[in-house]
Specification:
alpha+beta; 57% helix; three-stranded mixed beta sheet; single chain; 12% strand; five-stranded antiparallel beta sheet; 500 residues
Amino acid sequence: MKKFLLFLSVLFWYLCGYAQVKTYDVDLSAVVDKKYEGLEEGTTIRISKLVSETVIDTLSFPGSKNKIFRYIQVDDRLIPYTDKIGECLHFNYEKVQDIWEAQLITKMLPTLFKKGPQKDLRFDMEQDALEYMDRVNVEGLVYYDPYLENYIYSLIAKIVPKRALAGRHVDVKLIILNDNSLNMGIFPNGLLMVTTGLLSCLHSEDELVAVLSHEIAHLALDHHIQNVNKAISRKSRAEFWSAVLTGATAVAEGIAAAKSDYVPGLATMGMAMVSSSIFAQVIDRLGMEYNHEQEIEADNISRRVLSVLQYNPNALATALSNIKTEMENRGSDEAYFESYTHPALIERIQLLGGPQFIEDPDFEKKISFVITNIAQYRYEIGHFREAIDLVNQNMENGVAVSEDYMLKAHSLLALYDDEMSNQDALALIHRAKELAPSDINIYKSEILAYLRLGDKATARRLLQEYDAILRSVPDCSVSNLVNSEMIWSRDMQIKLDGGM
């Protein structure tokens, strides 16, 4: 009787107007947990389409509205779609695409049906994302490692939806930022930003797939659009960026003022654009300030993706635990506190089942350039022990380059002054020299190491060799640096001859 009445209702609207039909292809298996719209409990079904019919009223009655009918196609039948569907079906995840399509049916369709595609808003948000990333890019903050990029793209390809979700393709553009912060975020147009600082915290491919899946879930589930829709108001793009750039200039001036060579009006915008205050405004405007429910939802999606791809399902908890440890090492206790929008990191780790640390030297080899990069940063800010720990990772995996050996040598010389440490530093310098014999900077470090050991005769001989190397540099390529090094070499020889 119910189906007959539905048929009469649809027939009436067809007679009174005309219909617009939209269909979305899916391929999804599910078990009926609770009886749903004629589907018997315990049966296994396969959903092949989502159907939305809009019947346009042509009678022009005052206040008349279009009628919308929504269905899922099960085999050759159209079953009415209701918001209860997620409570009644248990989906089978045979491939990653199944995860996304199940979320489309249970989470995304209600908003899509209510708001429509919102193409204008999506375009506006994309322009904002491109505006921000253009400014980051021109300031030289992008880290280039073609091998690493190619590797991460191979993992992204395993995760992203292979088919459009309700007509919306999910494409991801990777951008690695040369930055020590522990950040990863995906913009509403698919720009995925990850810092070298965060990558250096990960120790397995499982962990990288976990954090990638979490961010891609935010994009695929349309969390950005949901959050922007909830905003009370939204400034025009011109008005917003005018305010941001005014604030960025003030921040840049403040940063630059701390430098001894600061000249007012010549502040660099790059540092300001990635400062917390400026970046916070951008992520808020782009709907990237996710709430508790969205973060937990993305965590759960990540865990499902890991399971389907046969990675360790606890890898996200492991990655978050590594990040928490690094935050603690930096003196931050933010991992233990929730905000109005975000659950505490420690809470997320517990909900995910806890970390399970896995050795993955192949992965650590793949990110070895990032490790060297972050070790250099740690050395420059005086975190010598952290620099040593990082380059040791490359050494243990057999992928250390000359920069790794030099960083460890310089860190040892900064931390200690005993025979054993000085000899260890000298041995590291010799290894670096073997790997990069043309690097003149290594010669200077070798001289200083011998002086630390009190071997003035060897230091004097190496100074003479160093001076000869510097003088052999073609005149056309002599730089201020080479000239200053020649002066240093000459003066050091004079001082040594004088019994220094």
